[in-house]
Amino acid sequence: MSALLSGAIAFALGCYAVASVLVVIRLIRGPRAQDRVFALDLLYFHAMLVMLVLGIRHRSDTYFDAALLIALFSFVSSSAMAKFILRGEVIE
């Protein structure tokens, strides 16, 4: 792996770490439930991006499969939380 790619991966992981810390602050301090749901969805998105970057770094397909699972769980959980906020129940 070249030094440029290694540096870019380290920079990307650092940026994702800083962004995730800021999102966790929004998750804790969010004044509305919608802010918290959006923050949790954004945390799922950051986790997926970290897995993709780690897959590039380690040259392994397993990380890409894990990123796909994270994206699937993100969609399902966001849909369930949105339905809960709108109707007050998830299962009718």
UniProtKB/TrEMBL annotation:
Cellular localisation: Cell membrane
Molecular function in Gene Ontology: sodium:proton antiporter activity
Membrane topology recorded in Swiss-Prot or TrEMBL: Multi-pass membrane protein
Superkingdom, taxonomy of origin: Bacteria
UniProt entry keywords in alphabetical sequence: Antiport, Cell membrane, Ion transport, Membrane, Transmembrane, Transmembrane helix, Transport
GO CC list: plasma membrane
Residue spans crossing the bilayer: 6-25, 37-56, 62-86
Major site of localization recorded for this protein: membrane
Family: Belongs to the CPA3 antiporters (TC 2.A.63) subunit F family.
Name the record gives this protein: PH adaptation potassium efflux protein PhaF
